[in-house]
Design goal:
This protein is an alpha+beta fold. About 40% of the residues lie in helices and about 15% in strands.
């Protein structure tokens, strides 16, 4: 299921969060997502896998709060 051609139509502020060791959606793919969405920010979390929100919870929540603030 490939929607890369639709990413440019996203107008919402976007934060893409990825674990640097993610093997399900590798960092290369998260970079493509962030690059395809106008103005998107990419947060690459070292030492985290696909469950980055669980593995590095405090770090991820702090960045989400900063992004939304």
């Amino acid at each position: 299921y490939d929607v890369r051609d639709k990413l440019a139509a996203i107008s919402a502020r976007t934060l893409v969060i990825c674990g640097a060791e993610d093997w399900i959606c590798p960092p290369s793919q998260s970079r493509l997502i962030a690059q395809g969405i106008p103005g998107a920010r990419l947060m690459m979390v070292e030492g985290a896998n696909h469950a980055v929100h669980h593995e590095k919870n405090a770090l991820v929540l702090a960045e989400i709060r900063r992004f939304l603030g």
